[in-house]
Amino acid sequence: MIPEHKFINADNIEDVLRLLNENDNAKVIAGGTDIIPGFHIDSARFKEIELLIDINKIKDFNSIELADNHLSIGASSNFTQIINDPNVNKYFPLLVNAVSQIGSHQIRNRATIGGNFINNAPCADSVPALLIYNAVLEIKSIIETKEIPLSEFLLKQYQTALNTNEVVTRVKLPFLNENYSGKFYKLGRRRGVAISRISLAVLMKKSNGIIEDVRIAGGAVTPIGTRFTKIEDMMKGKAAKSDLFKEAAQKIGEQILELTGLRWSSIYKLPVVQQKIYQLLEEINLEMNSVNKNEN
Predict the structure, then answer these.
(1) Closest to 153 (Cα-Cα) out of 137, 141, 164
(2) Is 14 helix (H, G, I), strand (E, B) or coil?
(3) Residues facing residue 245 across a β-bridge
(4) Where do the CATH 3.30.465.10 domains begin and end in the chain?
(5) Distance CA 113, CA 108 (A)
(6) Which CATH class is domain 182-295?
(7) pLDDT tens-place string over residues 88-133
(8) CATH 3.30.390.50 residue window(s) in the chain
(9) Burial 251-288 (b: 16+ CB within 10 A, else e)
(10) Per-residue CA distances from 181 to 4, 30, 118, 176 (Å)
(11) In angstroms, what is the C-alpha Rg of the chain?
């Protein structure tokens, strides 16, 4: 049985900010694919909610727009919008790949990009892709508008830096140059409608066989989505070769153990993560070599 709550259909951002400022126990709702099931199971995370503020009518929250140096995605844009948007496909294909594997068609028609990372479940599929794209969040309150990198916004499992009087309005993805190539990988218990057991996103840029930039992020293998920046730094400036990829895969396994400790799932997850990181790096490298060869 879902408990009764006050419910307001907000008409504009100003109303949302005012309501959040006046009600400490208010919660913004868009897709509702986390909150509503949470109510069904009487989740402690949602017990304090007294007021739900629906933002679906507000265009500023669900538009996808090109800017001079970034793509701006409204926080209540659903995954189907993102999958079908030509600019997201053109500039950020790994995000499309990630969100196209979330849930079913029905879920993707409801679930929103903002809800996915604000809920901050370990298995949030959009997070690894957003992290390697250096996503920045626009956050508003009645007092101010601020921006914060997603990597700083995610604090710990099911907890973020969002204050009770604030709302995430947009996700900003800085454009990459054309020399990047990447891959996204998801492992679930079945092929469709499955929660991630492992998700990985990798981007690489190289010149004359030397890695100029590499970005690696994982989901469902650490308490929250994580960028493996120490391994990235270790790889930069080195030749893109199998030995380096093997070393990176080994070190990622070590870092995951440092972050999570030895868990019941470590015995199967760590070898899979290490093997897939190695394979993804190899595949990206081979594809980039093929492109360079064809161009020459």
Answers:
(1) 137
(2) helix
(3) none
(4) 6-174
(5) 10
(6) alpha beta
(7) 999 999 999 999 999 889 999 999 999 999 999 999 999 999 999 9
(8) 182-295
(9) bbbebbeeebeeeeebeebbeebbebbbbbbeebbeeb
(10) 49, 33, 28, 10
(11) 20
All residues at 6 or more sequence positions from 129 whose CB lies less than 8 Å from its CB, including other chains: 92, 94, 95, 97, 98, 99, 184, 201, 217
- pTM of the complete model: 0.94
Say which CATH architecture domain 6-174 belongs to: 2-Layer Sandwich (3.30)
If one counts every other C-beta atom within 10 angstroms of the C-beta of residue 229, the result is: 14
Write the secondary structure of 224-284 as one string of H (helix), E (strand) and C (coil): CCEECHHHHHHHCCCECCHHHHHHHHHHHHHHHHHHHCCCCCHHHHHHHHHHHHHHHHHHH
List, in sequence order, every beta strand (DSSP E) within 122-228: 136-140, 145-149, 154-156, 159-160, 167-174, 180-188, 196-207, 210-219, 226-227
Q: For 9-33, how does the pLDDT look when each residue is reduced to its tens digit (9 = 90+)?
A: 999 999 999 999 999 999 999 999 9
